[in-house]
Design a protein that fits this description.
This protein is an alpha/beta fold and about 425 residues long. The protein has two domains: about 270 residues, Aminopeptidase, CATH 3.40.630.10; about 140 residues, Glucose Oxidase, domain 1, CATH 3.50.30.30. The protein has twelve helices and 16 strands. The strands form two sheets. It has an eight-stranded mixed β-sheet with strand order 1-10-12-11-13-16-14-15. An eight-stranded mixed β-sheet has the order 3-2-9-5-6-7-8-4, sandwiched between helices. Strand 14, helix 9 and strand 15 form a beta-alpha-beta unit.
Length: about 425
């Protein structure tokens, strides 16, 4: 790695002021409490999401931030409706479940069928046509999110290829207290669409035990899920204008939408508040970097990523002026630093590693690899260097996409530390030359 060209001595005092203020103020937690307790979860197309967008625009304007405005984006409007899952034989038992986002409905009477349990796609392929007319359950143990989420994303179409009438998936989590985890799924246009839902680890293991004993478990799945016409939504944009190069932009963002369960506190309300508070804090401290820091609260990350793509479309004419993008979407836990994209030039990595030293006092000074995010992904594919806030997310997937993603799971201290980390990185990156 080349030697850094950035000199950080001039930034030690501002970084100290930022960290001190962030760890002292409680504005971020107060705002997150309003978002979660007064507005609640925010699925694309819902009235709650539109209330959150209007509230954010109004509050950012009161904060005196620059260029505050919504940017229209049309989003999918999926509605869960009533849903249930019941074990019919060999015993009668209600099972906790959540339909997967974008799934179709069952017939009104539901689907009653025998369950075939597999642990991976290889087992499914080995069974082949023997799953025809049955419900496939993917009881895949959690290894890591990227590997295990494939069963949620693609399991329905893989099962439909062999004639299955529905698909169930073990929730994508290492921990369960009878908490099912929802999330988006995708349909292969070459295969029939079948309804699909997530069940708890406890239910998955019960069905596995019955199946292994030759009990031929039968379940009844009912789902009313449907798509309504696309709805109008918006990304929320606010800026701290640069003092010398205001046309050059550093983006920091999170997504304001959430699933329709819980409060969307970790995913991703806390991050939205953290990036917002980062520039509000800089403004209050009178710290205005040479370049503009632009906060974007993206819409529709969860089941469409229309917000990230919409932002690229709306700002394509200034794409060359985007010098860096940071996304926060891994929950609000103790910050560890930034994860930088593999495609970042070596000098950028070297300079970012130098800048990170400003955060050593709160142990947020690591620069790791494989950075990026769903919302800044479109920018990164166009050549913008991207990174994401890295946190100690060892318990993130315990509550991810569940009813348990609520404000009480957020540590005010961790939220303040995330604000400090984002503000120091954004301010310094916007003021120096990384390349």
């Amino acid at each position: 790695m080349p030697s850094p060209t950035v000199k950080i001595d001039a930034y030690r005092a501002p970084a100290g002021r930022i960290i001190g203020a962030a760890l002292t103020y409680n504005k971020a937690y107060e705002r997150l409490a309003y978002l979660t307790d007064r507005i609640g979860n925010r699925l694309s197309g819902s009235a709650n999401l539109e209330r959150a967008i209007a509230w954010a625009v109004a509050e950012m304007t009161k904060d005196g931030l620059d260029n505050v405005h919504p940017e229209k984006v049309m989003v999918p409007h999926w509605v869960r409706g009533d849903e249930s899952l019941e074990l019919v034989t060999p015993v009668s038992l209600k099972l906790s479940m959540l339909g997967l986002g974008n799934s179709i409905a069952t017939p009104a009477a539901g689907i009653t069928s025998e369950v075939v349990v597999v642990q991976d796609f290889a087992e499914l392929d080995a069974l082949g046509e023997r799953v025809r007319g049955k419900i496939v359950l993917y009881n895949a143990p959690f290894t890591n999110y990227g590997a295990t989420v494939q069963y949620r994303l693609n399991g329905a179409s893989r099962a439909a290829r062999y004639g299955a009438v529905a698909a169930l998936v073990r929730s994508i989590t290492p921990v369960s207290l009878q908490t099912p985890h929802t999330g988006a799924m995708n349909y292969d246009p070459q295969q029939p669409k079948i309804p699909t839902a997530a069940i708890t680890l406890e239910a998955a293991d019960l069905l596995q035990r019955l199946y292994d004993k030759g009990e031929h478990p039968v379940v009844r799945l009912k789902m009313e899920a449907k798509f309504l016409p696309d709805a109008e939504s918006a990304n929320v944009v606010a800026e701290l204008k640069g003092s010398e190069r205001p046309d050059e932009i550093v983006v920091i963002g999170g997504h304001l939408d959430s699933w329709d369960v819980g409060q969307g506190a970790h995913d991703d309300g806390g991050s939205c508040i953290a990036v917002w508070e980062a520039i509000r804090l800089l403004k209050e401290l009178g710290l205005r970097p040479r370049r503009t820091i632009r906060v974007v609260l993206f819409t529709n990350e969860e089941n469409g990523t229309r917000g990230g793509n919409g932002y690229l479309d709306a700002h394509r004419n200034e794409l060359a002026k985007h010098v860096f993008a940071i996304e926060s979407d891994s929950g609000i836990y103790r910050p560890e630093g930034l994860a930088l994209a593999e495609t970042a030039p070596p000098l950028v990595r070297s300079n970012l590693t130098e800048i990170a030293k400003l955060l050593s006092g709160i142990r947020a000074d690591a620069i790791s690899e494989n950075g990026g995010g769903a919302d800044i992904g479109p920018l990164m594919r166009e050549g913008v260097v991207g990174a994401n806030l890295e946190v100690d997310g060892s318990h993130y997937f315990d509550i991810h996409h569940t009813q348990a993603d609520t404000l009480d799971k957020i540590s005010p201290r961790d939220l303040s530390a995330c604000v400090a980390t984002l503000a120091v990185f954004a301010y310094t990156i916007a003021d120096v030359d990384l390349r």
